[in-house]
Specification:
single chain, 127 residues, alpha+beta, 5-stranded mixed β-sheet, globular
Amino acid sequence: MREKLTELLKNSYSPYSKFPVAAIVVMKDGRGFHGVNVENASYGATICAERSAIVNAISHGYKKGDFKELYIMVNTEKVSTCCFLCRQVITELFDKDVKITCMSQTDMKEFLVSELCPYPFDEGDLK
């Protein structure tokens, strides 16, 4: 997976932050979907690699609960975790026991969704 993510980092469009990120989401049926961060001069229009990969899977017909694993890589020495916008999308679509692997160029950390998102905002909060 590390090699695939390293290659995918080259597709990032990150001229403002100079912080390329790549993600691969693996579905329960084994199919994988790629994503990279795509920045915009209007920063609010930027999409993160994690959401790019997740939306790619949804666009191909996958649904909530179909996600098995998420792999994320940054092009730095330090491991970085998902931003809170991505965590919200992950909380909406992934089961709490899905593994999220965050990688840097030299290190790796693994989390469960329940660890990255211990206090989710979900459908229960809307009642």
